[in-house]
Recover the amino acids of this structure.
């Protein structure tokens, strides 16, 4: 229950913060200035929304597949809400992270070291959500990297399926799955299947984190339509299999002496 609520909370807080910031950006647009929102897909970016300030009082919003709509600039909050609703409902964007929404890294020792390891691996700073957890997109699926500085622990956490019916059958499949992936803990949380990996934070060895990311990526690569049917559930990324996005060849880290 706690993990289900936590995941729902991550989504809602992320979108609420994104909406607030988007409204502020819209309100600050000068004549002729624009904002484009692009969804991150396999190896590419697809523009979904284009926002243009026609003048000091008018904002034009054009969404893919829809005719442009002009609204008063004073309605920035309503415009942002309408855009967020379309991104979630019409374009199935799971989280603002898929729109490359960045958050600054908090200056804490273990957290900053984890952030640097992820940056080196993926070639760019990794965004964080409202809870300060890193959010990495692996093969179009979200993986949350939860760092607890006080406990010196790191956890990789990935939602795999939702809407699972028939817990008895799912429990049997889960036993087989956990045997097949001994380094990954797979859990049923109400009607959802999640995968977690605990990573040692003291001492923190970047190579270990990246190796375990590789193991999780291998599991994510099996989460296709057939996998979802085994659990009678639905994938968070839909039914279209995607090519890898951020995960490239591992960076070579120096082991501590």
């Amino acid at each position: 229950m706690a993990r289900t609520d936590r995941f729902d909370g991550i989504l809602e807080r992320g979108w609420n913060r994104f909406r607030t910031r988007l409204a502020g950006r819209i309100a600050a647009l000068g004549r002729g200035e624009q904002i484009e929102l692009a969804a991150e897909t396999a190896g590419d970016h697809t523009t979904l929304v284009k926002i243009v300030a026609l003048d000091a009082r008018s904002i034009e919003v054009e969404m893919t597949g829809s005719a442009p709509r002009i609204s008063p600039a004073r309605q920035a909050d309503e415009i942002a809400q309408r855009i967020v609703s379309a991104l979630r409902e019409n374009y199935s964007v799971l989280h603002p992270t898929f729109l490359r929404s960045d958050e600054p890294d908090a200056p804490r020792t273990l957290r900053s070291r984890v952030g640097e390891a992820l940056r080196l691996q993926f070639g760019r700073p990794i965004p964080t959500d409202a809870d300060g957890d890193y959010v990495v997109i692996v093969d179009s699926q979200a993986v949350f990297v939860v760092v607890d500085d006080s406990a010196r622990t790191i956890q990789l956490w990935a939602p795999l399926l939702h809407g699972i019916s028939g817990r008895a059958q799912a429990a049997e499949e889960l036993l087989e799955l956990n045997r097949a992936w001994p380094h990954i803990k797979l859990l049923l949380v109400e009607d959802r299947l999640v995968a977690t990996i605990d990573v040692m934070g003291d001492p923190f060895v970047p190579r270990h984190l990246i190796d375990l990311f590789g193991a999780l990526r291998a599991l994510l690569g099996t989460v296709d339509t057939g996998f979802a049917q085994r659990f009678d559930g639905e994938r968070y990324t839909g039914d279209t299999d995607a090519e890898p996005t951020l995960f490239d060849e591992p960076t070579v880290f120096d082991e501590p002496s």
